[in-house]
Amino acid sequence: MMNTEDTLLSLQLFYSQGRRGNSNTRETPSEDPFLKQMYVETNLDRNLLSDILSNKYHLVVITGNPGDGKTAFLKRLEEKGVNAQDRPNGKIFKVQKYPIEINYDGSQDHQDIDNQTILKEFFSPVENAIGSSKAIDHTRVIAINEGRLLQHLNLREGSKPLYPKLRVIVENQLEMKNGSNSLDGTVVVIDLNKRSVVARRSNDNSSILEDIIMRMSEEKWWTSCNSCEVREYCPVNINISSMKRQKIRDRFRELIRIASFWGKMHITIRDTLSALSFILFGESSCEDIRKILTEKNEGWEKWVVDQIYFNSILNGSPKDRILSTTSLFEIYRFPGAPHLDADAFFGLPSKIANNYVYEKDNSEMLRILRILDRLSFYTEDGKKSKYHYESLKNMLFFEGIEDIHQNLMPVKHYISFKNDILIDVLGNLRFDDFKVRNQIIRSLNKSRGLDEKSNKLTVGHTEHTNGHIISYNEFDSGFFTLEVPRVEEPISHYCENEPNSLILCYTRDSSTRCSETPIRLVIDLEMYNMIRDIDTGYLPTRNELEGKFYNLGMFLEMLEELGGKEIQIFDTINKEKAQIRVTSGQRVEVN
To answer: Which of 15, 232, 406, 557 is the most buried (most CB within 10 A)?
Structure first.
């Protein structure tokens, strides 16, 4: 067992920008005993591993980004076998006398064998076995970049495709089309880009993020802290203790989810380890910490508060993928509560604790509040320290009572968005999709200065006679369906996932599914936030509509191209409306 000082240094090596190095971002658990103990199981380990070992599939394809844990999983699979022999970019071994072949990286050449040749040898037996009675010799498992996979499966020899059956199965599974596995149930494609480290599992209500936090915080790593003379102000000790509280972990997970939604980024396990390393353990050794807290030179209290998790995650590191997003949230800008700002500047630590902190007798947080109070000095212009104020707000996002926590959300309409994309255990939406759909349609109209009371979506808006007359097409709300995209079985069985958007689709009638129409608007958190702001009077600029919300313009343009036999005419001065209908024989009727 490693001692506490070595454990701290090893955990700091997960940080991608670590000043002592970042070797643990590249090692796999099988190569290092400490990493093996830090490894947390995912649904790949819980569900896919046993299915591979029971020969359920002829081919398992795992795609994703670097850092998703593909190699670590394949190494664990290899450990289950015997008589392992080298293969190009992998191994072949036996489990209960049945061969399993692994390719660790399907995008690489191997010595003097080019990648194309390796992949042909790997995939061709599977292609030949699909839809035939021909027995397949062994199970194949490959980790490969999606782009390289599709490029290879689209190869042709002359006019003949190399993989006519396998290509269709793989492409359909990647696109999550209905019945994507119906052509052949022995092939499964798992895209780890669809995995969420914050998604809760139904069986134990935990997540990959929380599992990693709990593994890092296990008592066995930190037994020496109990007898350390500086433990009361040690930021590492405070952070570990804080993460053992469920409410703190819940709010921590919420903030990482917001970062993922707002930053539109797929968070890998490597990203998660890097961020947690910096947030919880900083970059100071036990010796450094002991020296600072023993000598207590000028600035030591600010140093402590800087290292506490609520400042580490929200003040962050601009070079870390997760922290570069969370550091932009500026939680201090939100009021939190009617009297919070005044109390933050003038209140005593005990008053802050009694009125705003949910765990009022937590001795660690009381010590931090007293430090913050001592740091709340006046500046030369007579204003109180901004640092004290911002740190207190950061702290209350995690440690505050529920109302304070929700009012300090860094994205205004996040809670509504989260509630609208939640799916219950039966797979049903928890929200009134007709109500939300109509609200979205009204907001889209209002964003362009049109009738926000109508349940019809207006497109093709054209101004005539200096804007006195406008013409446009209308689409009844019944032509649209609002769906929450979801990962279907069997992929959802192997890949922790949760929705991250709504999709507004032009389906014309209820028999058409969202996935069957190209006219669809993906509403992510940023667009949802704008739509809800429009409800309260905000009007987006042309630059916003044509810039970061470019996909909205494309959606409206596709609807406009559908045309229609009814054109609405509106007199903006007299507030009169007319309808032009084009009937058979191109005869025009005006109503």
So the answer is: 15
Handedness of CA 311, 315, 321, 326 (dihedral sign): positive
Q: Which two tokens stand for residue 484?
A: 């929450």
Range of the domain at 375: 330-410
Whole-angstrom Cα distance, residue 498 to residue 197?
Answer: 10
Q: Are 168 and 139 part of one and the same domain?
A: yes
Residue 162: which of 134, 217, 124 has the closest Cα? Answer: 124
* Residue 40: C-alpha distances to residues 206, 304, 402, 477, 492 (Å): 12, 30, 30, 46, 19
My answer on whether 383 and 428 are in the same domain is no
- Number of helical H runs and strand E runs in the chain: 27, 16
Q: At what angle do helices 115-129 and 164-174 cross, to 10 degrees?
A: 100
Query: Which of 494, 480, 386, 469 is closest to 442 using CA atoms?
Result: 480
CB 141 within 8 A of CB 101: yes
Residue 504 neighbours by CB under 8 Å, 6+ apart: 437, 440, 480, 481, 482, 520, 521, 523, 555
Residues 6+ apart with CB under 8 A from 163: 123, 127, 153, 155
Q: Which amino acid is at 578?
A: A
Count the Cβ atoms, other than its own, within 10 Å of residue 523.
23
Q: Do 363 and 449 lie in a common domain?
A: no
- 31 within some domain: no
Q: What is the domain count for the chain?
A: 3
Residue type at position 265: M
- CA distances to 194, 465, 468, 560 from 577, in Å: 47, 16, 12, 20
For 431-480, the DSSP string reads S-HHHHHHHHHHHHHHTTTS-TT-SEEEEEEEEETTTTEEEEEEEEGGGE
- On whether both 434 and 356 belong to a single domain, the answer is no
* Domain membership flag for residue 346: yes
What angle in degrees, to the nearest 10, is found between the helix axes of 208-216 and 235-243?
A: 130
Q: What angle do CA 237, 240, 246 make, to 5 degrees?
A: 145
- Is 495 within a domain? yes
Summarised one tens digit per residue, pLDDT across range 49-65 is 999 999 999 999 999 99
Domain-ending residue, one of 194, 222, 250: 194
Bridge partners of 100? 93, 139
Tens digit of each residue's pLDDT (9 = 90 or more) over 394-432:
999 999 999 999 999 999 999 999 888 865 444 455 556
Which residue is it, tokens 């936030």?
Answer: 529
- Single pTM value for the model: 0.89
Domain match, 560 and 423 both: yes
Separation CA 179–CA 209 (nearest Å): 32
Bridging pattern class, strands 139-143 and 59-63: parallel
Compute and round to an integer the Cα radius of gyration of the chain: 29
